[in-house]
């Protein structure tokens, strides 16, 4: 086996081993919270966020107090990592679930202080996220079109029940030009079928995508894939 192939094979083995070790160390809610907290206190925010995401998956359909704790862990870890946009996205998940404990209210003010809402909302360009459960996010990237206006690139995901073991259950890809004034836009040149349409309505850092659901309109992805729903802008 060539040296390069051996190195690649070894890297894959190490990645699988690392993932298996992380699962063993984070098999329960308590273990994930402890693992994430230790990493956070050591200033290792990326592994802390990974552990807190695992914590979230283990409580998402359960006790609301445990869910709020996991979400607040993610909000704080992303703030400390310097990603106020992602912290705002996790805060939105908590607020959408009507979680309003003392920690959530405290982090609401911290996120407001850290995030430059005016700069983020100044242009449609940027990265938007839509939460799909199981700590999985669908993404929308809006960029400038060289011919004028904007382009949209959707990367929708459906988490499924075993995302840690197998990854998302379904993925999709849809892109095209945006026609409109930046507040109300229509996706064009996206190779959608007859009668299919995608519209975007933007207000500040919030964006809602409306989509026609009909035969052939969601052929851009796997089973259960759609780009419709509410998104939040996390970066320019």
UniProtKB/TrEMBL annotation:
Residues 1-22 form the signal peptide. The keyword Signal applies. SUPFAM superfamilies: TPR-like. InterPro entries: TPR-like_helical_dom_sf (IPR011990). Keywords: Signal. This is Tetratricopeptide repeat protein.
